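tool=predict chain=A
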Amino acid sequence: MFTVVMYILAVIFLIVSFFKDRKKTKMALKKAWKSFENILPAFAGVLALIGLVLTVLTPDIISKIIGANTGFLGMFLTSIIGSITLIPGFVAFPLAASLLQKGAGVMQIAVFISTLMMVGFVTLPLEISYFGKRIAFLRNALSYIFSFIVALIIGMVVK
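tool=predict ok
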């Protein structure tokens, strides 16, 4: 229901914008389309990869590797995967939901999402160039540790 309301609001505001300034609205729609065209190949590739992985990995395999019974080892594995993977949030959350439905543990997925969003192994060189080695490593290390704290809290709340 929330999604439907958001779409309705977006359409209403688009119509208001169109009547207020047609030229700017058309320009904004063209920019949005170009952004969509730029994102689409990467998005489609990631979705295809996720679909392939979820097809190959049965619920039994997922629960054995990152299920609730895997404890810290499963959390550690998902934290490593989350730290080195560069997946946008709009893909990561549906992936996490699919993994949960297939038997992954809540804390394991929480640490995966947290490290995915906060720890940037792939983007570390760029971060070092802007902030310096010390700050970049400190931020990533603290984010990594905080991801486990978040997962433990979520695990306690969900139980």
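The first helix runs from residue 2 to 20. The mean pLDDT is 90.
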